[in-house]
Amino acid sequence: MITPQLAGEVAEALAAGEPVVALETTLVSHGFSEGRGLAAAQAAEARVRGAGAIPATVGVVDGALRVGLDAGDLERFAAAGTSARKVGARDLAACIVQGALGATTVGGTLAACRATGIRFLATGGTGGVHRGFAQSLDISADLPQIARTPAVVVSSGAKSILDVAATAELLETLGIPVLGWRTPTLPLFYSADGGPAVSAVVTASDEVAAIARTHWRINGTSGLLLARPPEPALDIEPILAEAVRRVRDQGVTGQLVTPSVLALVHELSGGRSIEVNRQLIADNAALAAEVAVAYARTLLPAAWASPPGVAATLAGCRPTTRVWPARQWETSVWPICARRSSGGCAKPGRRPVRWARKRTSRAAWSSPASRCR
User: Fold this and answer.
1) Which of 135, 188, 224, 254 has its CA 20 to 30 A from that of 295?
2) For residue 269, what is the DSSP state?
3) 228-252 burial, b if ≥16 CB within 10 A, otherwise e?
4) What's the rounded Cα separation, in Å, for the pair 327 and 310?
5) Which of 180, 179, 171, 117 minimizes the C-alpha distance to 146?
6) Residues 81-139: pLDDT tens digits?
7) Tens digit of pLDDT for each residue in 242-294?
């Protein structure tokens, strides 16, 4: 199995059970023109940090699947533009072996989430069933990746250049819950209304976190889609239909369809679509971070959540949690402490004690001071 290379802060956050949000790189290289993708990615990362989570932008760089890119990496993707490979889950192996620069799609980013245990991903819009699919069978690989990855994908619905009604039907077939963020209908990417009904309406990040946790207990390998309406919205259905028709007439197929259509939409809308796209990407990143923070809180045993409790008995030790992804992607959380019972704190950079992966009741941790090493 290929082990992704984690950035230092991402590795530390995952080890401590802190909230992490994955971000794709196709928006940097393929989603915008004239370097706008770099600004959109930077804004998304800033919004994730502002909400209290760690951003983990994913891409293939120099023969490695990297989770957590630095500023130089993002600039490299922006400079490469569409010459960077557009990498879905099926393309990762070839891109890694051939040492190519690979910008991950939602599906490719979800593959990295599966390999690392990241549970939250933010994007502008997911892929789905393309218009005229009955003739082309053009269906995005994003959907089966959501179905097989235990992650919450936050987006403004499926891209509205797609057949959104057919996409909603396929989401239901795949068993993917579609949660509407304060909306009863699936957003249409640029516009907030007019889509099919969602499976449930949610109004708070804590509620989303609770639903996700319960869903994973029942369907451990399945993801969820959290659909947030764009603000402001833009009704450009005639432009979308014209852009799709032109691209189809040009014979464009496969992974080139979406960027080609979006470029035409930008041109035909006089640039209005770009501003809406940039804003919804940032807003979705912030929402994903809020839900990730709420989910991290649900993993803390009550005794550790507020004093006086178990944490108060540690006499100065710094309590935290460690998340253990099991084979079925269930999660076990263990209290740990940076101070050893023999006195003195662990050296900087030293890993806290790793506990055996077994189920232990909270009562067994009523005196955790004896558990410190």
Assistant:
1) 188
2) T
3) bbbeebbebeebbeebbeebbeeee
4) 29
5) 171
6) 989 999 999 999 999 999 999 999 999 999 999 999 999 999 998 988 987 777 778 88
7) 888 888 888 887 767 777 877 787 777 777 778 888 999 999 999 999 999 99
What is the tens place of the pLDDT at every residue in 9-20?
A: 999 999 999 999
Token pair 């947030």 is found at 228
Exposure letters 62-79 (e unless 16+ CB within 10 A, then b): eeebbbbbeeebbbbbbe
Measured on CA atoms in the order 11, 155, 166, 253, is the torsion positive or negative?
Answer: negative
Provide the β-strand partners of residue 129: 139
The helix (H) or strand (E) run that includes residue 1 is none
CA 328 to mean position of chain CA atoms: 19
Q: Give CA separation, 370 vs 25, 67, 315, 342, 367, in Å.
A: 46, 36, 12, 10, 6
CA atoms of 361 and 5, how far apart (whole Å) = 34
Q: Which residues have a Cβ under 8 Å from the Cβ of 364 and sit 6 or more positions away?
A: none
* 68 contact partners, CB below 8 Å, separation of at least 6: 6, 7, 8, 9, 10, 11, 54, 55, 56, 57
For 148, the 3-state DSSP assignment is coil
* Separation of alpha carbons 74 and 160, rounded Å: 27
> For residues 161 and 170, is the Cβ–Cβ distance under 8 A?
no
112 and 22 Cβ atoms separated by less than 8 Å: yes
Tell me how long the chain is.
373
Catalytic annotation, residues: 24, 159
Prediction pTM value: 0.77
Most confident of 174-183, 250-259, 302-311: 174-183
- Tracing tokens 């790793």 back to the chain, one arrives at 354
Name the nearest CA neighbour of 27 among 96, 105, 110, 109.
105
Q: Specify the 3-state DSSP secondary structure of 315.
A: coil
Q: Which two tokens stand for residue 127?
A: 């892929």
For residue 59, the model assigns a pLDDT of 98
